[in-house]
Each structure stands twice: as C-alpha cells, then as structure tokens.
Here is the input.
Amino acid sequence: MKYITTAVLALGAGVALGLTEAQAAPRKHALSPIAGRKNWYVTTGPVQFKIGETILSDAELPKALADQAETADKKAAKARAQQQAEESAGAELAEVKALNVRLTADVEALTKLNADLVAELQAVATAKAEAAEADAKAKADAEAQAKVKADADVATSKASTVGTKA
Here is the structure.
C-alpha cells in the first residue's frame, strides 16, 4: 500500500518498507535490504519520515499511526472532495449573487410602487379636503341665501302688515 505522511512518522524495527534510493540513503544505518525486492527494506532500528514523504508497505500501518500517514488513495479522495467542495461553494456563491441581484431589483420596484402609492394617497387626501371645503362653502352659501330669503320674507311680511294697517 502506498502511504503519504501527514505528520512526522516514526517506525520501529521490523517494518518492511518500499523507499526510493534518496529516502533509503540517509536511513541506511537502520535499514536492511530485502533480497529479491528492489528498493524494499526492513527497518533494523527506529526510522523517521518527514511530512509529505511517500512510503510503500505490504501491511496496513497500525491504527496508532493513522494520524501520521494516509493512503495515497485516501489523500487523492480528500483532494477530489476538497475540489468538489470548492466548486460547489463557487456555484452556491454565484447563486447567492444572482439572488441578491434579483432581490435588489425587487426592492427597487417595491420602493417605486410605495412612492407611487404615497403620491396617490396624497392626491386622494387633497381631493377629499377640497371637496369638504367646497361642501362647506356651498352649505355656507345656501345658509346665507336662506337667511337673505328669510330676511326678505320678513321684510315683505312687515311691509304687508304695515300696508294693511294703513
């Protein structure tokens, strides 16, 4: 199995590993080559690997070392999942931006509609006030005419009473 270290990995003696020559050279004091398998070694003492190094092993690493290395397949799957998450986030961001544009347009339309309604209500209120003023004037005129007529009737009545007495 191919592993990529995600933290400093320390292995004890007796572990069979596939390493590149560049990896084996500085650790040769703690490695013994496996006959018949090129670039495969058994550890004879403790060895360490830096973050990001690739190693091969016939066996699964102990669960205690799971946080320090992951299979190359798992790492590739994580990378694909990360890429898909980023693409999904990008699509969601584009959708949110489009929604924001539509909402902004809706808010502007509602603001204009509100302004139109306010203007219409003001016009109706002005018309009602003018109508009430005209009604009050007409009533006052009618009352004034009625008073003039009543005064004229009284004057006529007095004149006829004076004329009959004479």
Summary: Helices lie at 21-24, 72-165. Residues 11 and 47 are 5 Å apart (CA to CA). The mean pLDDT is 86.
